[in-house]
Give the backbone structure.
Amino acid sequence: MTSPVEQVTVWWRYAIATTVARTADAGAGVGVVLLAAGGSGGGSVRLGGLLAAALTAPHLLGARIGRFVDRARDPRRPLAAGCVGYAAALAGATGALRLGLPVIGGGALVVAGACGPLLTGGFSALTGGLGGCPERARGIDTLTYGVSGVVGPAAVAGLATLTSPASSLLTLAGATLVAAVGTRWLPPVRVSDAAPSGGGRAVLLTVRPLRRVTVTTVVSAAVGGMLAVLAVVLAASVTGRPADGAWLLGAMGLGNLGGSAALAVRPLTAEPVRATLVLTAALGAGYLLVALASGYALMLGAFALVGLLTAPWVTASLATRERHAPPGRRTEVFAGMAGWKMAAASAGTALAGLLATAPPRAMLAVAAASVLGSALAMALDRSSATPDIPRRQQALWRHAR
């Protein structure tokens, strides 16, 4: 029986290790673009975009990478190995780009990107086995996402200004090694004692509750990625200063941090699939408020509201993965959805960049309608709580849960 003090210690260790790892993952893309644009090995922002794509695209392999964790006797080992691999590949890419070898650097970034889902969804798969209140564990997990999403890009930008983009990337690589060591501080947790079920099927699409949440996650993440570009364009149209877009994104980050902190204190206990549906609709309404905001102050508030709503939305998504992941495929589900989310956000950013000359409010209104449409599609795709698997496996599933 774990004492309250021991339980808090476990949560703190988890929070520190995951925050450090996810900060590196969140900031690496910014560092790569800065290095390519100003370093000797890059020379252009366009090359930086291609290299950033090389880093983010392999996140789509998250489901396959997650299977190694599911099959491991001790999941801490493959997670630590993923952190070490990420650090080595990122450091190698930095060195190659500094030497003017973008092809080799891009190949190293592909390796780092393949390890990326372990730093996000891979760690999240452990929360159910950390003990204590599982809802609070998910709230803490959401908080680490919020902190790393703000600190990662900001730290890279600051270090790149004070030193160089290469130094910022090497610092992130070192931080990921620290996360690998921190992984060994976590208690031994079995992700699942059950044999893998469902064969080789893509469970994110064939298990109905997971499919419903995956669709809304992909659409919402793509719109969230668009905001990175649209914030600058919106700020320019309202204040005449594109740099004010950074304050809009900062307001969204602070809103997300506030919501995440609140969830760590007061966990979300609602039924996760239903909560995801309601919160997706709320997010769509929040994006619509951003599009309709008439002044800069109102726009700041709307961005902060979107960030605030994102925190419980992420928590509900994590809870859905926790509840409906098939036995033996838990990390596959967590890492797979994390990979799709990252890829969708990157695609949204790229799309917004390509359509940067279009009216930003119209673009955001269409994006908001897409999020609301995904919530409607999720509502229409109704099912019982039991996934679409044979009856015998359903019984085993209920027993395992």
User: Anything to note?
Assistant: The chain is about 80% helix and 0% strand.
